[in-house]
Structure formats: C-alpha cells, structure tokens
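The material for today's practical consists of a large collection of protein records. Backbone structure tokens are a discrete shorthand for how the chain folds in space. An example says more than a description, so a record of this kind follows:
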Amino acid sequence: MAFFLGKDVAVACSTENQSYGLTIASGGTYTTPVGGTFATDLNTASPDGAAWEQITSVDLSIGAMDEDISYFGMRSQTKAEIKKETTINVTRKKTNNEWDVVYNDARYGISGSSVAWDGLEEPTSTHGYRLHLTIDPSTRNASSEVVTIMGCCVQSHTVTVNTDGTMDETLELMSYITPVYQDTKYGTAITNANI
C-alpha cells in the first residue's frame, strides 16, 4: 500500500474508449465529448487533460488474490495466484456532484455517445476508466513517474460531513489488470489478452 498527499501526486482520468470522454453537467446529467472534464477519451495526448482538482490524498494498493489448493493424502497446501488486484482510493474536497453522478450512472465507463455501460454485459476492452497517477508532478521531467491503472471500475463512493462545514468525498476504483509504470502516460488500448 502506498499513501500520497494530494500535493505530491496528480490524478488524471481517461475512459478506455478511444472516441468518447465523460463530462458531468451541473444538473446531474452526463455527456460524452471527445475531451471530457471527468475523463478524456483514450486518444487524448496529455494525461492532465482531465486532471482532478482539490485532491487531498491518494491510497494505492496493489495485491494478488490467492487460492489454497489441497491435495488428497498431502498435509501441505499450495497457494496459487489467481489474479492481480489494484485498488485506488482518491479523496478530495467536495465541490460538486460529479463523483455522485459517476457512481450512480457511469461506474463501468462509456460505451458510446451519451451511453454508459450498465454492468450487465461481459467486459470488453472499452469497459472502465484509466487512471494516470503522476508522482511528483511539480518537476514534470524525466524523473517523474506515472502509474497507469487500466480497466478501472468504480467500487464505492463516500461523502464525509464534518461539524466545521468542510466535506470530503472518496472515490474507490479497482482493476484486475497489472499497472504500468513509466515516465509518461501509457496510452496503448487494452487487448482481449489483458482482460
């Protein structure tokens, strides 16, 4: 698990769809323009095109799911890795209802023009979101590392209300695809071999 303060990282989001991004309107509706405000389309060159603002913390957890296999006549068990699991929790100051709409209406990404996946179909290479987590974004040089997490789906959304009037909200995203670490955004589309 890695924990980052909001000032130490920049979080940008794109959809896995190469033609459509995601923009949330103030009235609680969403549209799918090429460059979105919540998430840009996958072909947008800059990972900062839809950088999320007011981020206070990011919690990145990378792990694996194991299965215990026992054999007849043997006392020991084998642990077999089934799949990788990456979870990212992003917390920000609540400024609008954008994350509420994403959690309620577009948790699995965008399938086309003004249409979100409903989660009742078999996942394809265009399902989900792609998060670009830039570590030490102030330098913006070759030493900056970008962690790209592909095929993310929104798992949960929570809002915390405090007595002094400040509100925080957390969006949790999860993926079973192995993250990519490099010094730029990883923009290659997911293939069926990745799913």
Q: What stands out?
A: The chain has a mean pLDDT of 84. The chain has one domain: 2-182. The domain at 2-182 is CATH 2.30.110 (Pnp Oxidase; Chain A). The helical segments are 98-105.
